[in-house]
TrEMBL record:
Amino acid composition bias (Basic and acidic residues), ranges on this chain: 59-77
Protein name per Swiss-Prot or TrEMBL: Tubulin polyglutamylase TTLL7
Organism this protein belongs to: Mizuhopecten yessoensis
One of the record's GO molecular function terms: tubulin binding
Keywords: ATP-binding, Coiled coil, Ligase, Microtubule, Nucleotide-binding
Bias (Low complexity): 20-29, 587-600
Record-stated family: Belongs to the tubulin--tyrosine ligase family.
Amino acid sequence: MIRQQKAGLERSMMQGMKPSSSVSSLASAEKQDVTLSSLTHYTRRPSAQGVGPLPQTGRRHEDRLEERQQEMGEADDRLKGAVMPKKKRKKKSLITVNLSGTRYDIIRQMSEKLGYVVAKEDDPNSYLFWNDCFVATDRISEMKSFQRINHFPGMGEITRKDCLARNMAKVQKQLPDDFSFSPKTWILPADHSLLLNYAKDLRAKKKTKTFIIKPSNGAQGHGIQLFRNAEKIPQAEHFIVQEYIDKPLLMDGYKFDLRIYVLVTSCDPLRVFLFDDGLVRLSTEKYLAPTEANINHSFMHLTNYSVNKHNEFYEKGDSLSSGSKRSVQFFREYLRQNDINDGVLWQNIGDMIVKTLIVSEPHLLHAYRMCRPGAAPGSDSVCFEVLGFDVLIDRKLRPWLLEINRSPSFGTDEKVDYDIKSALIEDTIRLLNIKISDKSRNMAAQKAEARKRLFRQNKRAEGPDMTEYEKKRQSIEKRKEDLKETLARIRKVSAREDYENRNRGRFRRIFPPDDRGRQEHYVQLLSSTFGIFMSGKAPAMQKEIQRVYNNKLKEVDIMDMLAECEADEKEGKYYTGGPNSKPRGPKPLLSMPVSVPSPLENDDDEDEEMEDEETESMSASGSPSMGRQGYHPGRRPGSSGRPDSRMSNDGTSSTFNSRPNSGVGGLRSRPTSNMSAANQRSRSLSRTGNGKHTPLQRSAVDDNFLLSVVKEREDELTRKTLVALNEMRIKFPGKSDQEAEYILDKLHENWKFHKPRIASYWLVKLDSIKRRKVIDIVRSNVRAVLLRTWRVSDVDSLKVYRIFNRVFNRLLWSHGQGLWNCFSSSSNSTSWETIFSKSSENICEVELNCCRRIVQLCRDCLLIVYQFAAEAKSSQSSTPHHGSVDDRSSTGQSISTRDKSLSLIPPNTQTMSQKYSKLYPTTRTQTMGS
């Protein structure tokens, strides 16, 4: 067979076939498992650069052609047989959800709607776990930091009926006024005698009460019974007995209760959200006061869905406002139609929920920290929980807590169920803020923490051999660490609140509340509950509660404290000067350096020479200027040519230049002309009886004199800053200053019309980043004013700029509420001026006026930005013409501040379309030619 193929190949070669035909024939030979080397002994290895030209030899043309075809076939075979390396596809990471523990399909639907992938099996590495039943503490302990599970350990302290009754009884005994929303409850068999004594007292008063008994760990209405006689209640069973509320609020003659949904996202610290909708569950038989005749009518006295759905009169509604199951929003509208204030009732329900969770917080926090011993306080919680509160409203519109469900039903038998529960689950998963980067970020944090523990140095404990200097330094270092930890926690809480406010959907945060008075009351109750349930750890926990929940320090305050600590370290304020407390390193500078005095006969000449030099260094107008090059006040004529190393280049003591936030370190100018005469007087006063200076006397005089001179100079520059700020104006893009002032006047004249729109724009439409950009328009120009007025390179070291920063941060306080409060004519406790009244820092009247002007500029800037956005939005619906706002926005001008002498627009200011493209994503700017 091989010989026949070879002969056929040779015949085709002799007949002058094309090379492509030979290659195809070789390919067919390859299919029959015949190698090229077996066809002929003339096969050669082709060169590395490919098949070269035919060799010029004396062989026959047919032989050379055959050899050439064989080389081409071998190269083609080698290319076909080569295995090309497959490009590895990068596996796309996805957020997986483990739903093997739940039977509700609505959870899978909402997870997929948010872009999550449901794991096909019980994947232990999923990001989210959802279970319908209780979760063991061991499983929570094994959870990774990036994972979330929908149950807390210790939540049974309020979800089990007997535990809730026991804990409520304890706090009602200590705080009866705050925890009176739970009916009288007895736990059987332990409290059977107390129940009988209570019934006996009622008979003595000729009163009759109805009692309802429930299994301690029951659900769905199983085992619930009503009794008119307490003596007939069996005592051997594990039941709870409650006073039956026999005067409930009725809807169309039917008794009902509310299923309120509450989300707890964290217990360390506690964060609680109330869903603004829920279920109204009506009974299916019209209500009558309980008697011996109707006491067994479950469809009249019980509102459980699992009980009433078996009644033939149960009505399935096709909307949220009909049927035996309706929405809470319908109920609130029903109250408003009957002239009942539903807002007060809803607020009372939220207050009741917060107080109930405050009772559970000591148990939750203890159980969670036991399960997560390595987690830092305040870190992201791996647990969350959706609770179902069953609330009954009586005729006096007073809410009563019946029970709490830790696994509320998410069945969607009716339309009202699907509409409410789908929104609830969707908003819950979104509020968890699960990101794909959580896994890598948490793993990196664990490695960093392990590395920190590995390389941590053993701190030297305090002992009798520890010097006073070392104790002071150690205390400052500890304070710095505490401040940094507090600062990190405040920033994290701020970022979390910003995300929650943007993604909470139909949830409303009820703890921690926004109301400061309500917050302080809740914190007081929280401290009391820790004292009731955890008396041994109560003092330590109460301090932690005050630090976490009632912290009044803001981020800027902590930054100031850190700067003070660093200044103390730099200036050596922890050096006490004792015999055994010698500081390490060079001695800190405490006064002006003193050079070696020259002979007495040269003193008068030197005084006159220094006086002349200082006079020449000042300009005629009195403005500061740099001194003569090479001149140093600390150098005397008889000293060496090198100035003292502790003297700065501008002739002031380095002690003052090193003080942060004093506003002196940036001054490069010489003192005023009055310094020469005062300096001469100070020398005459500091001479001793023999005509020479005493170093100690001269140092004290120089220090006091320099302090007064620097203070005067700071006051002068602050006044100039105020003048510059008063001359600044907010510029409208494409309009003159007169037109911008006219726009502001019109906005103030029609303030009642624009007020709700500006409030919605500033507080709702703009997020924290865009609000900060609006304030930064004024901030950047104020910074430019300080650079020009104070003539410094580091504006951050100025005291006045630090004061301004506190004002800017206050205006952004509470998601922009700080600036919005400035539009109110009445002064209140949230005014920005309170940051100085409560501060230990002294603020002069000129600095306060500067702050007032800055607040006015920020107000004008907000109004101009609002008007620009409104005009740009209105221009979208109409064709732009020459001279419109859209046309003028392309000229490269931006909203900025200007004064009379110099435009304060920074050199790198972007055009309006570039700078505000992020502020107004829906605004389109067009050029003149469009």
